[in-house]
Amino acid sequence: MAKRKILIVEDEYFIADDCAHAARSAGFQVIGPFGSVTDAISNMPDDVDGALLDVNLQGSKVYPLLDKLLSLNIPVAIYTGYEPQNLPAQYSSLTIVTKPGNCIDAVRSLTFKIQKLGNGDITKG
């Protein structure tokens, strides 16, 4: 069975590495990590199953990618230094884990969302 694909977009190397490790440990195939919206969009496969995103990427906001993922009904978790109340209101229903919290919490939340959509399994098949 194929693993579910999770897109990771984070511009800080060590945080990106921690998140990728947490996602692999949870059984995902990691796409990325990417440090910019442009790189993430141009390398995102059509069959991505979920995404873990930082909001601020080298001074640019992740919102264009976030909007694209949401329009495709792809589950998203936000892992950011921003407090939830400081994000645009249209994202208030998303899972938001605030740094320096543990990336594992964001991966767990994303796993739950993907399992709900995929009949309880994080593998495809």
Protein architecture, described:
It is a single chain. By secondary structure, this protein is an alpha/beta fold. The chain is 35% helix and 26% strand. It has helices at residues 13-25, 37-43, 63-71, 103-117, and strands at 2-3, 5-9, 29-34, 50-53, 56-57, 60-61, 76-80, 95-98, 123-124. The strands form three sheets. A five-stranded parallel sheet has the order 3-2-4-7-8, sandwiched between helices. A two-stranded antiparallel sheet has the order 1-9. A two-stranded antiparallel ribbon has the order 5-6. β5 and β6 form a beta hairpin. It is globular. 37% of the residues are buried. The model has no long low-confidence stretch (mean pLDDT 91).
Overall tally of domains: 1
Oligomer: single chain
Name of the CATH first level: Alpha Beta
Poorly predicted runs are: none
Shape: globular
Query: In total, how many beta strands?
Result: 9
Task: Look at the helices and sheets and give the structural class.
Answer: alpha/beta
Give me the CATH fold name.
Answer: Rossmann fold
Largest sheet geometry: 5 strands, parallel
> In percent, how helical is the residue content?
25-40%
Please provide the ordered H/E string of secondary-structure elements.
EEHEHEEEHEEHE
Measured distance between first and last alpha carbons: 5 Å
State the helix count.
4
Share of residues in strands: 25-35%
CATH superfamily membership, which one? Response regulator
Rg measurement, Å: 13 Å
